[in-house]
Amino acid sequence: MAAGAVPRILTVCTGNICRSPLAEALLRQRLSDLRVEVHSAGTHALVGHGMTTQTLELAARAGIDGAVAQAHRARYLVEPMLIEADLVLAMTREHRDIVLQMTPGKLRQVVPVREFARLAEAVSDGRIRAAADRGDHVPADRVAHAVALITGMRVTAATADDDVIDPYRQSSKIYEQASAELLPAIAQVERVIRLALE
After folding, report:
1. What is the CATH number of domain 8-197?
2. Sheet strands side by side (includes 8-13)
3. Is 19 an active-site residue?
4. Where, by residue number, is the active site (predicted)?
5. pLDDT in tens, 5-56
């Protein structure tokens, strides 16, 4: 990474109209005071489509600016996006597996978002800061070291509990469930990134 390189986070789901754009919008909002790039893409994206109406409603309730949420357009996941990312947050184990088939060398940077959160909860702030310090003053390197610490904590395979349910074409109750699964996970991602960049 070049000195001062900006950390990049990529969120990945299937259509890029529900889970991953909501995760992207939440992270952008929560990390807006930091120099961090956040993007999203879909493994089978409905290219050019916006977020679903229900996802827009969830975004509004989470305090996401309506114009920002409505500006989203789905895009297809391609290898260069993955190569550039310091952290790839998959919405499910299946998405993680697809990403790793495309870029096998990114094992330490690719993780289901809920698994990342579960692992991060068990790691102290001090350990995250210490790991990030190995990246000196390069923001992307600091994030990469913190992410490697978290993903290096894996001792068991991710389970179905680490997946964010797919709400597409489902009831509002399922959309609510997806949001309830995603929000606490995003809070842990924010925590790790903030600690890494302190």
Report:
1. 3.40.50.2300
2. 37-42, 8-13, 87-90, 110-112
3. yes
4. 13, 19
5. 899 999 999 999 999 999 999 999 999 999 999 999 999 999 999 999 999 9
Q: Does residue 13 have an active-site annotation?
A: yes
> Annotated catalytic residue: which of 8, 19, 30, 93?
19
For residue 4, pLDDT over 90 is answered with no
| Burial degree of 71 (CB within 10 A; 0-12, 13-18, 19+) | exposed
- What are the pLDDT digits (tens) for 122-175? 999 999 999 999 988 899 999 999 999 999 998 887 788 999 999 999 999 999
**What are the DSSP calls for 166-192, one per residue?**
--TTS-HHHHHHHHHHHHHHHHHHHHH
From 74, 76, 77, 75, select the one nearest 49 (Cα to Cα). Answer: 74
Residue 72 phi, psi dihedral angles, 5° rounding: -60, 140
Stretch (H or E) spanning 10: strand 8-13
Of 8, 13, 75, 93, which one is the catalytic site residue? Answer: 13
Beta-sheet pairing, 110-112 with 87-90: parallel
